[in-house]
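Recap from last week: sequence in, structure out.
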Amino acid sequence: MKPTKSHGRLSIGATRKPRDLMTETPRLKGAWCAKIVTLFPEMFPGILGASLTGKALKDGLWALETVDLRMFGEGKHKNVDDTPSGGGAGMVLRADVVSNALATAAQGAPRDRKKWPVVYMSPRGKPLTQAMAQEFSEADGMTILCGRFEGVDERVIEAYDIQEVSLGDFVLTGGEIAAQALIDATVRLIPRVLGNHASTEEESFSHGLLEHPQYTRPAIWEGRAIPEILQSGHHGNIDLWRKAQAERLTKERRPDLWRAYCDLHDRDPDEDQEL
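Predicted structure tokens:
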């Protein structure tokens, strides 16, 4: 089994020179860190400061820094964007401005993209998956560029070997909400953040399937009873039932995941098996 890495105390700041966003806490060596390049550093930590991710942030299991893109703007008004080359609506974030911000974010971070990915939240990127979040959680940290307007000059994406990641086939006004979703999906996989490692192993997508239905008390609610098998105490049968339910839901709701699962387990996705 792969040994888990240690994670230390946090440090949170905004740049050019970092500033505290929450109560200052010293950072211990090894803490996973997210560096966010954004025009709106005040949007962080946002939802990340609540619940288990917020507690883990205060406890130092991960760290958060923001890099204020406006600080690198040009001229009196700190302009960060310009009109699209070739014409068109909207504005595009300038390559030189974004480059300077990314260079600042890169200070103290490994250059190896496996150890420190640089990500741009973009609807044209690869869809975020549980496997991708797992890979990010195993890195030392990551830098996330939050776009605005019509996007970012393509040259800086190429120059910095930036990985584009999408939450889905829709468009947001900026990358900050998407960045928080990405961080949440990643941070919760860091050891000790959830407190129960088994819970992450049983979730949707962890084994290529959607999660089985969940139930709790009361045993009967508005005439609807919890399935008897879940109250039987026979854990072997319960596990079989849960797997069958996960397969059924995946086949019905996500045929793409079902085909990939069947390919992995040498099964026929069109099998006439009662799930």
